[in-house]
Write a structure and sequence with these properties.
The chain has one domain. It has about 200 residues and is mostly helical. Helix 1 runs antiparallel to helix 2, helix 1 runs parallel beside helix 3 and helix 5 packs antiparallel against helix 6. It is built from seven helices and no strands.
Amino acid sequence: MAETNLGNPAAVGLAGFATTTLLLQFHNLGLCGAGVVFCCALAFGGGAQLLAGLQEFKAGNNFGYAAFCSYGAFWIALALIFMVSDFQASPNNWIGGHLKIGPGDLGWFLVAYTVFTAILFIGSFAVHTAMVFTFATLLVGFIGLDLEILAGMHIKTFVALDLVLCAFGAYYMMAHVIFAQVFGRDVLPVGKPWVKKG
């Protein structure tokens, strides 16, 4: 019985993560509005990345499963947080009157994801160098956002530029996955693991 070649869900998961991260940084740098980020966060960064994570589960890849599902949920949750925050400006509705998001609440949400990202950053040592780079810049970005929101540090531009690098790290890995199949060879090397398994 011939084996069926299956697609690599990382191609879609990485694309969803990279594109939504990049768009949010464009917004933070004043290049685009929040509406396009909100829509992309729900559809691509959230929905598509979540589906990619479920496919990683079927492939038996716990790292990809945890990363894509969790960051897919992150983008959906972030979009909902922004939506609820907007509703708070109109208290004459059920959401505005019952669901409250305080000034520091977004910061603590990001702190929780900072902890999660730190765990995956350590796990990336056993994957390859490109993964380490992407998670290193992501972790720096989350820490920067924590400091900006909770400590009042004015580092928005630095954080945005760091996360632009993170997005391009994810794009690079996506291109690596796609090019390796369509060209039948490793066009974009991702480097060796920093830590050997076993």
